[in-house]
C-alpha cells in the first residue's frame, strides 16, 4: 500500500491534534495549511505544508492557499481510471485519501453585536474550504471527507481495524460523510446569501427565501399516531420553541408543538 495522505485544514481545531496523531501513527502523511499546520506541529507531528506540495506560496493574506491543481487533482483523480492516474503521475501530483475541513465562522461573525463591517464580514466567506469539501465529497468513493470533529472517532476506528488502509472505511460510511459535507456547504451558502441580501438590498420582503435547518428531532408521532414527524430548528441561534427546554413528561408530538405555538403566540399578543 502506498503511503496514504490526509489534507487537514480547519478553523475549529477541536480534536485535530488527536486526529493527526492517530493518522501519523498509522503511517499517513499529513498535509496542512496555516494555523492548522502550526497546531499539528505544536503537538510534535511532522507536517507537509500545502505550499510545498503545490510549489506556490499562500498569497493575498491567505485568500489563496489550496486553490491549485496539485490539491484538487489529488482529490478528484479517479483511482479506478488508468488515464486519471497516469495524468496525475505525469503532472507530478500525488493522490489525497482524506480531506478534513471545516469552514470559517461566517454565521458567528454575522451575529456579532455591534455588527461587524461589510469588509470584515466578507473576509469570513470561505472559498478554498467549501471547494475542497465539494471536491472530496464528489469523489467520496476514493476520498474520505470529514467536516465535523464528531466524525473523527468512527473513521479512526475503521482505519485502525484496517491497519491504516483507507479501504477500511466502507462505502456506506463514505456516502454518509459525503452527504453531511454537501449539507454543510449548502447551509453555509444559505447563510452567506441571506446575510448579504439583508446588508446589500435591505427590504421588508426578501427577493427569495433560502431555508436551512439543523438536524431534526424525532417527535413521538405526527398529526395522527401512525404518522412519523420531526421538529427542525432554523440554522443559527435558537429562538422561540426551538429554544424551549422540556423539564419532564413524555416526548412531544406534532400536535403538542401546535398547542405550544398557539400558547406562545397568545402570550405575545
UniProtKB/TrEMBL annotation:
Entry similarity comment: Belongs to the PurH family.
Pathway: Purine metabolism; IMP biosynthesis via de novo pathway; 5-formamido-1-(5-phospho-D-ribosyl)imidazole-4-carboxamide from 5-amino-1-(5-phospho-D-ribosyl)imidazole-4-carboxamide (10-formyl THF route): step 1/1; Purine metabolism; IMP biosynthesis via de novo pathway; IMP from 5-formamido-1-(5-phospho-D-ribosyl)imidazole-4-carboxamide: step 1/1
Cited SMART domains: AICARFT_IMPCHas, MGS
Organism lineage: unclassified sequences, metagenomes, ecological metagenomes
Signal sequence, renumbered to the chain: none
Xref: PANTHER family: BIFUNCTIONAL PURINE BIOSYNTHESIS PROTEIN ATIC, BIFUNCTIONAL PURINE BIOSYNTHESIS PROTEIN PURH
GO annotation terms (biological process): 'de novo' IMP biosynthetic process
MGS-like domain residues: 1-147
Gene3D superfamilies: 3.40.140.20, Methylglyoxal synthase-like domain
Gene Ontology CC: one annotated term: cytosol
Name of protein: MGS-like domain-containing protein
PROSITE patterns, per the entry: MGS
The organism of origin for this protein: marine metagenome
Keywords assigned by UniProt, alphabetized: Hydrolase, Multifunctional enzyme, Purine biosynthesis, Transferase
One Gene Ontology term of the molecular function aspect: IMP cyclohydrolase activity
